[in-house]
Amino acid sequence: MKTFIIGGTGLLGSASAAELINRGHEVRSVALAPLPQNAVFPAKMELILGNFMTMTDTELTELMTGCDSLVFAAGVDERVEFLAPVMEKYIKFNVNPVERLLRIAKQTGVKRAVIMGSYFAYFAKQWPELKLAQKHPYIKSRIMQEEIALSFNCNSMDVMVLELPYIFGTQPGRKPVWTFLVEIIKNMKVFTLYTKGGTTMVTVHQVAQAVAGALEKGIGGKCYPVGWYNMSWKEMLAIFQKNMGLSGRKVITIPSFLFRMKGKQLMREFASKGIESGLNLVDFTEIQTANTFIDKTIIMNELGVCDDDIEAAIGESVKLCLDALNGKEKLLEMKVE
């Protein structure tokens, strides 16, 4: 099988390319320059540096011709700040590209496609009473992305969405998404203050296994909730602190109303700069303080995802975050064009 990956030099795209190549598949990818310093990419990956957003349909058709499958490992998440209205940006980067790529893929004879989405979409469907898509532009965009993607599922092309949670693992030269949390913990001198609740998580290697498993044997028209390790925030923070040399520091659970107050403050600061957050930081309290857990059975049985060392992956992430904060590493951040 020959796979066309959008974003093959990113953390998830690169790991997915390596997994596919190790399984005997071919990979062609389009990715943005510059490349992360010291990053190692699969030697057998055919890499085209460029912005797929500005390529013509004809150019993308030529690149996709001869490929059996497509992986979308691009787009933006809730961490990227945009000037209002933010929904326009999410449609630009998360929704419209999926429609365009799948349309071209179908025309060129691609048989299988995997879209990397968000586990927020999964919980929006699981907890309709919270009205998450109505309250949070980012989550709405992920629901729209899923709907667009699955609308292309048909007899000639199987389309699947991976609803990805928080992910641990590193890529040399690229700034981990967890740097903000390491900095928060570092700046708290006596105790670590955090909310109740918890989350599911996976390693980057497990995401790569899920991508390859979906392409090889996934069920078309299905959204796969991806999760493996379910931890309370306290449990996760204990691993963070251990790798920061802060073992034994007490984690104190703050009342939810304090998180809401901080959310209000941040939203006022954003508004003063003309920025609109992808998440309503007040209403996000409902998700932050919940146990956003996922049963691993589906991805284990249907996609062949295997166990991994989550503590080691967290440790690697924390170390690179500390190196970035201490100025030891010059790292690329998420690119948006």
The poorly predicted ranges are none
**Arithmetic mean of pLDDT:** 94
Structural class category: alpha/beta
Number of helices: 13
> Whole-Å distance between the termini?
30 Å
Please indicate the percent range of residues in DSSP E strands (runs of 2 or more): 15-25%
Give the helices and strands as they follow along the chain: EHEEHEEHEHHHEEHEEHEEHEHEHEHH
Shape: globular
The residue fraction in helices comes out at 40-55%
Radius of gyration: 20 Å
> What is the count of β-strands?
15
Task: Describe the main β-sheet briefly.
Answer: 7 strands, parallel
Strand order of the largest sheet: 3-2-1-4-6-7-11
Description:
With 337 residues, this protein is an alpha/beta fold. It has helices spanning 11-22, 57-64, 86-108, 119-126, 132-135, 137-151, 179-187, 204-217, 233-243, 256-272, 285-288, 297-303, 310-325, and strands at residues 2-6, 26-31, 46-49, 69-72, 82-83, 112-118, 158-164, 166-168, 192-194, 198-203, 223-225, 229-232, 251-253, 275-276, 291-292. The chain has 13 helices and 15 strands. The strands form 4 sheets. A 7-stranded parallel beta sheet has the order 3-2-1-4-6-7-11, with helices on both faces. Helix 1 (11-22) links the parallel strand 1 and strand 2 (26-31). It is globular, with a radius of gyration of 20 Å.
